[in-house]
Amino acid sequence: MFQLDKHEASIANVNQRIQRHGEDRQLAADIKFALSAGNDVLDSFDATLRADLFRKPGSGEQQELPQIGGAGLTAVKHPALEPLKLNHELTGYELHIGGLLETGDPVVLVDVKLKRFVIEPKEGGSVAMTFTASAEVDADEISELSAAFIREDVLLTLVPPKRAEQAEDLSGGDTLDAQEAADAAAEAASLIEAGKKAA
Questions:
Q1: Helix, strand or coil for residue 187?
Q2: Buried b (16+ CB within 10 A) or exposed e, 168-184
Q3: Closest listed residue to residue 98, CA positions, set 7, 1, 33, 15
Q4: What mean pLDDT, rounded, does the chain reach?
Q5: Contact 91/113 with Cβ under 8 angstroms?
Q6: In a designed cystine with 131, which of 52, 117, 135, 179 is the match (CB 3.0 to 4.6 A)?
Q7: E strand segments, the chain
Q8: Is the pLDDT assigned to residue 198 strictly greater than 80?
Q9: Residue 1 pLDDT greater than 60, yes or no
Q10: Which residues fall within 8 angstroms of residue 124, CB to CB, at 6 or more apart?
Q11: Residue 126, helix vs strand vs coil
Q12: Cα gap 116→87, rounded to integer Å
């Protein structure tokens, strides 16, 4: 699952807008981030994406950098390929935007949607990435986001939804299936019992 922990990033744009819930109007913000990461981040989106975009370097080509890693897949497989747009939309995130000096409290947004991912493979085993984080905000948070936008460079933390919540969501469907199965079994037993009495 895609996540970051105090990862250096830049805020490329902050857009405030109105989000409607029926007749209610709620202030919201779209924050565009740009960052560089090791190509293992691609595994968060698709298990084969890294191998689709990178290969092991040949003789005389740039070798794997110690801080990058990436199973030796550090050469760009298709240099003429334009940056790729991914249609992933990830919901339920918690987002922290801190200063590079880690002074003061970070801006914290909840129930954040991540979307509009664009990735560009780089020689040496890294990827340039941009994406947009969208969330409902209040006036104070808009002010804090504007201050972060002016600073531009930030430490970004992305906390994915808790596994327990996901399991709870999944178990809701499983409980319904189990109930249906129990009802069906009870009905079958009733029919069998009725058949025995009739005999």
A1: helix
A2: eeeeeeeeeeeeeeeee
A3: 7
A4: 83
A5: yes
A6: 117
A7: 4-21, 24-38, 54-55, 75-76, 84-86, 90-99, 107-122, 126-136, 153-159
A8: no
A9: yes
A10: 62, 64, 65, 68, 74
A11: strand
A12: 7
> Using alpha carbons only, how large is the chain's radius of gyration in Å?
24
Residue 176 pLDDT: 41
Task: Tell me the one-letter amino acid at 133.
Answer: A
| d(C-alpha 188, C-alpha 74), whole Å | 60
Separation in Å, CA 131 to CA 118, 121, 128: 6, 15, 10
Contact between residue 76 and residue 123 where contact means Cβ atoms under 8 Å apart? yes
Structural tokens at position 53: 């975009």
125 burial (CB, 10 Å; 0-12 / 13-18 / 19+) is buried
Top mean-pLDDT range of 42-51, 100-109, 161-170, 190-199: 42-51
User: What average pLDDT score do residues 129-151 get?
Assistant: 95
Domain segments of the chain: what residues? 4-161, 162-199
Give me the residues paired with residue 84 across strands. Answer: 119
Least confident among 57-66, 103-112, 146-155, 157-166 = 57-66
pLDDT band at 103 (very low <50, low <70, confident <90, very high): confident
Q: DSSP secondary structure string, 45-74?
A: T-TTHHHHHEE---TTSPPPPTTT-STT--
Query: At residue 186, does pLDDT exceed 80?
Result: no
Which tokens belong to 66? 């110690």
Enter the tokens of residue 143: 């002010």
